[in-house]
């Protein structure tokens, strides 16, 4: 039995438990935990922002450490060195000014992203948005938060745009308006998975159209994951081009997949397996 500090608070705890405020179910492992047990929180875990994660899952989702390209998040070859742009960004500088991401695509973060995206779990997408807000705290204040849009056919199939659901709590945390209306996906595009860089660029040619209302605004573009960054690049260019005329674009993504990592492609291919996981939980 673990000794609880502040034993005199026990009657209050009993009351809270009676009305189910002292016990919550962890959104990741589904095990009940008490948010009042602050003493159990490990150091260096996810920030304590009242999110429904048990102490051990908080540790699994701890924020990334340094050692990434500041322009695209590609892991650095020498993580201990000062942050420097990677070879690809040195060759072709991305159109955005700042790039922020919460973590690398894998482990617990990957589980949550797939659950939010293909399991249509709004609570999970809300949590991802709150985590992303933590990574974006030092960005210049945006005039508008713009989620990467889905084409209306894909939106009808899925029923929601996962980027918009992630962007919602982010907009709330940064105190900036959420404006999904500022960027339109003009025509449906093939899935990017398995395409070469040249094919990806061609696939997204003219895919996005920015509203003239972005003129002069600093836009924070939000996506759930980024691999090669082609989608973000096309979207940012559309916002910045003469038709759009945004003053600047910054980018925020929940998870960054290292360029040569097949993990994301494999996970997408296996995403139908999530239905089984969902029915178990
Ligand atoms: Zn947990
Ligand atoms: Zn880079």
TrEMBL record:
Signal peptide: none
Residue ranges of coiled coil: none
Top-level taxon in the UniProt lineage: Bacteria
InterPro entries: ComF/GntX_DNA_util-trans, PRTase-like, PRTase_dom
Domain Phosphoribosyltransferase span(s) in chain numbering: 200-260
Pfam families tied to this protein: Pribosyltran
Family, similarity comment: Belongs to the ComF/GntX family.
Name of the protein this chain belongs to: ComF family protein
High-level lineage: Bacteria, Pseudomonadati, Thermodesulfobacteriota, Desulfovibrionia, Desulfovibrionales
């Amino acid at each position: 039995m673990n000794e609880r500090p502040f034993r005199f608070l026990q009657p209050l705890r009993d009351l809270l438990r009676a009305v189910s405020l002292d016990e919550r179910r962890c959104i990741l492992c589904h095990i009940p935990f008490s948010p009042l047990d602050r003493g159990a929180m490990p150091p260096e875990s996810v920030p304590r922002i009242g999110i429904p994660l048990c102490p051990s899952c908080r540790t699994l989702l701890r924020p990334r450490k340094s050692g990434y390209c500041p322009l695209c998040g590609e892991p650095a070859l020498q993580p201990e060195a000062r942050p420097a742009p990677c070879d690809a960004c040195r060759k072709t500088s991305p159109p955005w000014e700042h790039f922020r991401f919460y973590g690398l695509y894998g482990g617990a973060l990957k589980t949550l992203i797939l659950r939010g995206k293909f399991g249509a779990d709004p609570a999970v997408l809300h949590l991802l948005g709150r985590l992303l807000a933590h990574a974006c705290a030092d960005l210049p204040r945006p005039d508008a938060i713009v989620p990467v849009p889905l084409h209306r056919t894909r939106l009808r199939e899925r029923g929601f745009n996962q980027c918009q659901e992630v962007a919602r709590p982010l907009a709330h945390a940064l105190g900036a308006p959420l404006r999904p209306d500022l960027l339109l996906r003009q025509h449906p595009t093939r899935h990017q998975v398995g395409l070469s860089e040249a094919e990806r660029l061609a696939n997204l040619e003219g895919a996005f159209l920015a509203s003239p209302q972005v003129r002069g605004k600093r836009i924070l573009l939000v996506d759930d994951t980024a691999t090669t960054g082609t989608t973000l690049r096309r979207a940012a260019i559309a916002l910045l081009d003469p038709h759009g005329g945004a003053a600047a674009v910054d980018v925020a993504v929940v998870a960054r997949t290292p360029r040569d990592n097949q993990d994301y492609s494999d996970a997408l291919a296996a995403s139908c397996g999530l239905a089984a996981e969902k029915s178990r939980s």
